UniProtKB/TrEMBL annotation:
The keyword Phosphoprotein does not apply. One of its GO terms (molecular function) is N-formylglutamate deformylase activity. Pfam families: CN_hydrolase. The keyword Transmembrane helix does not apply. This is N-formylglutamate deformylase. Residues 1-242 form the CN hydrolase domain. InterPro entries: C-N_Hydrolase, C-N_Hydrolase_sf, UPF0012_CS.
Amino acid sequence: MRASLIQIAVDEGESVNSRRTRVSSLVRDVASRERADLVVLPELWTTGAFAYESFASEAEPLEGPTYEAMAKAASDAGVWLHAGSIPERDPEGPLYNTSLVFSPDGQLAAAYRKIHRFGFDQGEAVMMAAGSELATVRTPDTTLGLATCYDLRFPELFRGLVDAGAEMFVVSAGWPARRREHWLLFAKARAVEDQVYVLACGTGGSHAGVPQAGHSVVVDPWGEVLAEAGDGEEVLTVELDPAKVAATREQFPALKDRLLGLAAPRR
C-alpha cells in the first residue's frame, strides 16, 4: 500500500478558490506520479488553521465546493483521499472542523467532526462546536482511524479508534512551529502505544502570522519514522505493509495487558 501526504503551504495571498483548484490538481498529479493508493491533505488548508477571522465567512455546507472538488479529484485519480478538513456550517447553525474522506469512486466514505478544539476558551475552541463521534474507514488494505491536530494530545481518543478496529491513524493538522517537537513526539507515541501506523499530515507556510511546523511524518507500529518532511510545501510518499500491524501486536502483545474499569482510589 502506497500513501502520499501532501504538506500544503498556505499562502495568505492565494484565494480560497485558487487554492482549492491548485490542490485538486495536486491530488491528481501526486496520485498518478506516486502511484498512491491513499492521499492525505492537512487540516483547514482552505483557510489556514489559525485564520480564525475567516472561519465564519469561508464556512461551507458539508457538500459544498470543497466537497465537490475533492470528490471529483478522488474519482479522477482513482484514489482513497483524506481531503483534510474544512470549516463546515451545519444547517442548524454551528460551525465544525470537519474532515472528509472519499473512496476511489468519489463517494464520501466518512466525515469526522473534530472532537478536541484548540484555543483554551478562544479561537477555534469558542468559534466551532465539538464533534462527538469517532470515525473509521475500512479500505481494501486496512482500517483508518481519523483524528485532527489537537486530538493528538488525547490518547484515549486513539484507544477508542483501536477498539473500533483502526490499524492506521490518519492525522490531519495545522500545527504551530513553536511546538514542533510535541508534534513529532505525539505522532511516535500514538504509534508505539497503539501499535499502528501514524500518517500525520501538517501544513507549511504561515497561517494568520503563525508559522507552521511542517514536518509531516509517517511512523510505523514500532515507532520508527519512515519519512519526515521539511518546513515548506512537500509530498511524502511511503510504502506501507498493513500486515505489519498484526505482526507487531503478535510479537509484542502489550494491548492484551490493558486493564480497564479500574476502581477509583480510596480516600
